[in-house]
Hints:
mainly beta; Immunoglobulin-like; 3-stranded antiparallel beta sheet; 12 strands
Amino acid sequence: xxxxxxxxxxxxxxxxxxxxxxxxxxxxxxxxxxxxxxxxxxxxxxxxxxxxxxxxxxxxxxxxxxxxxxxxxxxxxxxxxxxxxxxxxxxxxxxxxxxxxxxxxxxxxxxxxxxxxxxxxxxxxxxxxxxxxxxxxxxxxxxxxxxxxxxxxxxxxxxxxxxxxxxxxxxxxxx
Length: 175
């Protein structure tokens, strides 16, 4: 004879009188396995570069595996996975080296484990500043010679800009 039943978590006592003296009874208590599965990969990754950091905006997985996303992890250049410590977009990765390019992947974590990894997004960091600036004043104009940045941030420099008198307005000088 056997029977089974489900109980919510808590403390229980029984006053069942159907037990026979001299008979050993066994009771087993366990947990049901989780029905959660691994989450799909985040998608639509977009990298926005900052000074020594990159912000990765993304779309959350279309399938969270039936369990809440508890973390996102990122991977730089096929290295170790690191917790982003958050469950929302964007993920901001700091401590990067200006002048370097990175390959970045994301994955979601839920109670079932670490989900599928995203396709890589490639990010270049901010170029270093031009150096050795020499200004030559002429008739109503100024000419500035400089040495191009030694670190391009991992990408070609597409433009140079200048600012006059701390105006906070930057104007394109071209390449």
